[in-house]
Amino acid sequence: MVHSRRDFVRAAAAGTAGLAVVGSAQGRGARLAATTQTEVPVADVKKKLLFLGGTGFLGPHMVRHAVARGHEVTLFNRGRSRPELFDELEQLVGDRDPEVNAGLAALEGDRRWDAVIDTSGNVPRHVEATAKLLGDRCGHYVFVSSMCAHAGWTSTPGANEDTPLSVLEDKDTEELAGHYCEMKGECERRAQAACAVTQVIRPGLIVGPGDYSDRFTYWPVRVRRGGEVLCPGRPGDPVQFIDVRDLAEFIVAGCERGDRTTYNATGPDWPMTIGDVVHGTKAVAGGDARFTWIEDSAWLAERGANAWVQLPCWTDPRNPDTAGTSAWDNSRAVGGGLTFRPLAETIRDTLAWWDTQPEERRGRMRAGLSAEAEAELLEAWAARDG
Fold first, then answer.
1. Which end of the chain, N or C, is less surrounded by CB atoms within 10 Å?
2. Sign of CA dihedral 80, 82, 86, 88
3. CATH code for the domain of 118
4. Which domain holds residue 82?
């Protein structure tokens, strides 16, 4: 159970290591209605882009968008995770740790890139080594950090890019468990110190097709299944996340124009709620889902249903320790060109992707409540209400 802010931060960070008109959102049709995808226009100037990673969740979406824009793309990774994914592109094999095997040898020399996009940097020593090696051979170094790099990121509503970063007390630690957020902040500092052209992008929760965490996927899948659905809090409780494709397009666009501004890249640009997510899914997917809202987060936590983990996307805005998690100020990123596709599109495409996954994968949701646990909670809640 999550009993304290520290426990909550650790639980949230562990996952952080990428509508049709809604009944509860009258008047939001333009923001919620699904759109038709259009062809990606080719960029006016072709860029040479180097992706450090590129085969996880966010990386493939950025790579595909960059290729569609006509850019020349090179990948650097260990060649272990889905090496066949982009076999038509140049792939350099190495390790982020310069002391492991060939390390960064494949990146040495005098070769230059217009932009380097670092999606795989979690250990400060690794990020510092890469930024030093490539700093004077690239025009733009993008480090993808995390919103949780900020101190008090769960408890400060309205926080923005200028909110102080957390401090990594043990600068030599390389243990992500329990230190992920602080290590991301330290990675930012070292990248910026080593490379004068560093830009920092801090996403919050990234969702959409390909998400291995299931923190958003749980809701569309669960609501589509139908029946009585346990929903946490109140329908008007705020939630914030960004479709991985919107984030990918924003980062590539920044590389094209050489934008070095630090951005907290979360969404959307309107006050989305957990009610929008569940009612929107029902509007998109149909079915007979009916929603039972349980506001008592302490009651839920006592029974093993914790915010962000068993109840993903959501945190209790009435709890001062978690009131800031879905209340970040993203106005700088919106002003910098960040746009958001309709929620219906994210729901529809996430479900379509989920349906392509192997049966074993679909049988093991990585976030949310099991059917058995949900049923037990709903029964206990009904008994509690008499």
1. C
2. positive
3. 3.40.50.720
4. 5-384
